Each structure stands twice: as C-alpha cells, then as structure tokens.
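Let us work through a complete example step by step.
Step 1: write down the sequence.
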Amino acid sequence: MNKQLAKITKVNFNIKERGILMFHVMVDYEECGSQGVGGLCLDEYDKEKKERVGTAYGCEMIRQLMITLDVDNFEEAKGNVIWVLGEGKGFSFKPLGLQSLNVHGKQKTMIFKDIYDAFAEKEAV
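Step 2: predict the structure and record it as tokens.
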C-alpha cells in the first residue's frame, strides 16, 4: 500500500443531495493535487421502513475518523497533516484509508475496508 502526505482542508458529512449519509475528508497532497477521501455510505436502506437508517458500521466509521484524526470535533481536523493510504500513483491514486503521523510513538491507522468487513461479518452471523 502506498501513502501520500496530505493536509486536511475540510471534513464534511453529506446527506441532503440523495438522502444517503456520506463523509468526505478533503486533502491537498504534498506532491501535488487535491482529492476527496471517503465518499462512503454510512447508512443503509431499510426495506420495511422504506427509508434510510443509521448503522453501527457508520457510527464506527465516524468514531475511527475522530480517533485517527485525533479530534474532539471535526472542525479541529482542518489544517492537520496526515497520511492517505491507497493504491496507485499520481492521478490514479485510490485512497483506501488514513493514518496519523507517528508523533511520540502514537500512530493510528484506519483502513476503510477493514472496518466494513468487521461489521459485515457480524451481520452475517
């Protein structure tokens, strides 16, 4: 997995456009360019209720974002420097997770698929 150094310019959650709860971490890369990281769905459609509902997975994604970004409030993340983990290089770089800098031996990593898989396994049981 590759990693690129990036500065966070914005963290936001969206729901209004299509009614799907999503998150984005907007970053400017050290090498060049900007990108929105995330864009993952944090809720699901409930067929019985015929509406979107919150999920434990979505809550855990938000929790892990806060831990990895070391913030108590998402507004605090703006200006922080992080590693964006992913595959590919340049304009074909595909973000797969985030990692904090290793400051005082403390480094947090979140891989989006690992969190998804942990909750998919629980729901299948």
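Step 3: interpret the result. The chain has a mean pLDDT of 92.
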